[in-house]
Amino acid sequence: MVAPIDAELLDFAVDLTRQAGELTLRYFESDDLAVDRKGDGTPVTAADRGAERLLRELIEERFPDDGILGEEEAEKPGTSGRRWIIDPIDGTKAFTHGVPLYSNLLAVEDADGIAVGVINIPALGETVAAGRGLGCFHNGARCWVDDHATIEGAYLSSSRFTSWDEDCLLRAQRAGLDLRTWGDGYGYVLVATGRIQAMFDPQAELYDLAPMPVILAEAGGRFTSVDGLDGPGHGSGLATNGKVHDELLTILRRPSLTSEN
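Now predict its structure.
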């Protein structure tokens, strides 16, 4: 049996992520915010870079032997067997358009997987955080997924629909799902706090998804890739209340994964 993590580590991670959120709010809705383009064409701002730099400095000060993987800087190898995974702004497009659903993501990975996960929504004042064996918390209060048990009438959010396979989108519509775009990290907050039933990212990087396995597990839900694989490093993410997960996997999988051989 995997031992719970130290509650102090969870508290530290929450504090760090909120500090990063406060930094990003200084730039939010700024008239003179410059938006650059990275090599892959995705946007990046001084807020992204500044938030990640702050997180790295605070982590290195407290845990100098830990590894750090972030979206905006090169990976720092560690020797402790523990790694921090940072997405300083998940939803930079939302951020640059003045949409308050962007998030700051932080996770801690150890030999047993993701041990700590934090999703901070600074513009809304919401934080969801979980530690392995400690539970999942929304602004400090214990939170759980809901118990809606059918696909019919279930709410499924996604960051965008342009990356969906057209047949997959049609299957989801025909199944009776209520499709929304309360996306990026905020969609996972909504699932973990019982406000919707599912969040789906058909394409995502490790740092986009790293906090989700422990958050969903501790909230009583489930997180896998669209292929049903556990963990955040498989290129896609599906978070649910657990009750609709298997049926959603059947609906959302690519045709090559659902057809009989």
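DSSP finds nine helices and 14 strands in the chain.
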